[in-house]
Specification:
With about 100 residues, the chain is mainly α. It is built from one helix and no strands.
Length: about 100
Amino acid sequence: MTTAAPLGNNTLSPTNVTTKSQEEILYQSSGAIIAAIVVGVIIIFTVVLLMLKMYNRHMRAKRELEPTSTKAKTPPTFGQNSTNANQPTTVTIIPVDIHMQNR
């Protein structure tokens, strides 16, 4: 007759194995969800960038194809005096040396 050998401490209870695998599944699925979100955001940014580039190209071509007027535009009048409306407004900028020392 043969007798069965005792199993000892080599066996794991099924609750520990199930809990550990559920935790691993949660970690893996949360990592997969974060990766999917990151990839989705990158795809959205890429699509928006391509749309803006196409819009910019379209508007540049539209501006270049528009005819330009040869006569100068008159500035808008700022008041009731019509004699000042014929004079163009000019701004004179005088450069100032900041590092000039007073002696």
